[in-house]
Amino acid sequence: MGFLDKLNIFNKVRVVLSHTTHPGNIGAAARAMKTMGLQHLYLINPRHFPDPQATAMAAGADDVLQNTVVCDSIDEALQDVVLTVGMTARLRDISNEVLAPREAMPQVLQQAASHPVALLFGTEMSGLTNEEVSRAQMLVNIPANPDFSSLNLASAVQVISYELAVAAQTFQPVAQTLQPAAHEQVEGFMLHLEKTLHEIGFFTTQNPARMMQRLRRLYARARLEADEINILRGILSVTTEYNARLKARYRQDHDV
Amino acid sequence: MGFLDKLNIFNKVRVVLSHTTHPGNIGAAARAMKTMGLQHLYLINPRHFPDPQATAMAAGADDVLQNTVVCDSIDEALQDVVLTVGMTARLRDISNEVLAPREAMPQVLQQAASHPVALLFGTEMSGLTNEEVSRAQMLVNIPANPDFSSLNLASAVQVISYELAVAAQTFQPVAQTLQPAAHEQVEGFMLHLEKTLHEIGFFTTQNPARMMQRLRRLYARARLEADEINILRGILSVTTEYNARLKARYRQDHDV
């Protein structure tokens, strides 16, 4: 594919760094991105930004830093995103599939041909939190020395951006028939689902947090479409109404 | 291939950094190497080493730094090496073939299965010198944004080490029938060749430096075997002797 087509797709790719400790790593990540043609950097609550160290390490990728979007929450950083790829040091996850970069990047490009996607990196010390992992539809692990697997944050950004750029050289977009749901639509559904499960008394015998985690993973794997979200929320609404009607009839019958 | 076989091959791979300016980059390169299972770092005239910044950026790859070999010259750093891979920001070279990392790394593994190989990186600002390029049998370019192609040195080491590690996952060594010549054997031949060409008066009509550069490239592409070096040097010796005999006969005939 030509370089201009690639730029067009790369324009839909954002790199999201969560709670970065060292500003130098932010600048180095910006440089790594720009060498591979990526330009959209989002930061979730960085400890220091803007910062002279970030600028020094960017070494000419000042435009990336100047356009960086600083966010208060992961949901803000993932606004409009239809595919979130979480980077993990683990080879396996409880139930999410963990892919190698080379397997994942063609799928990332396929989505980015039409919708925003996010490459999500955790902190230098501990990576992504469980909550952050739960926002990802795909997890990626950079294969590494089992005795020393911790890549520098900017090095990880470099490897992933490089894999994306190399994948783009041979990428041919497939016409999409699906309309994937945006991050905020998925989150709206999850809230609705949790509220409904509370209302119908489902959580009286279940641990709500653990159950929601499992349901999140199920729907993350499914990669929900916008239409499907409407259907599922319709079911939830009817469930609650049905439940409300039952309650009303119960009150009527028992005269309470 | 198993992880132990990989370690065995990786034990024959050295990363050579020439005239590195910033000690932090040396430490970051050591970390990048170790995350991918590489351990042998050689430095040619680093500006500062050892240095606290190098140690800080190594972030646990102290063993790599402790075993680092500091050299005075490129020939010292390439002692015993049969394949030197030079990293270049250029997409093409006058006559050397320039490969992508993904094309080059299986060949590097193939050589490293039996003999030492070197991955050679130039300075942060200007990369490899022409003299250094002339010591390489293979040049590798990391594909990058044409408007901003300068990767951080440690990031480049990370990408190359990563490609080597990924290539090693599927690598199957082919039994080698050739005995490639070591770096110092090639250099010995080049000196012998240059001396001989002087003696026979070849350089009277040629620019010696440019001609030697061209001959170097020719033999770099050929990937000389140890036996072939012996043959070529034998030819050179006979040439000089023949020349000496001619001179002696001339002196005799003309009574000078």
Fold and architecture overview:
2 copies of one chain form a homodimer. With 256 residues, chain A is α/β, with parallel strands linked by helices. Chain A has 2 domains: 3-170, SPOUT methyltransferase, trefoil knot domain (Alpha/beta knot); 183-254, Helicase, Ruva Protein, domain 3. Helices cover 52% and strands 11% of the residues of chain A. Chain A is built from 11 helices and 7 strands. The first copy, chain A, has helices at 3-10, 23-35, 52-58, 62-66, 74-77, 101-112, 130-134, 153-170, 183-199, 208-222, 226-254; strands spanning 13-18, 40-44, 69-71, 83-87, 98-99, 117-121, 138-140. Chain A has a 7-stranded parallel β-sheet. In chain A, strand 1, helix 2 (23-35) and strand 2 (40-44) form a beta-alpha-beta unit. In chain A, helix 2 packs parallel to helix 8 and helix 9 packs parallel to helix 11. The model of chain A has no long low-confidence stretch (mean pLDDT 90). Chains A and B meet through helix 2 and helix 8 of A and helix 2 and helix 8 of B.
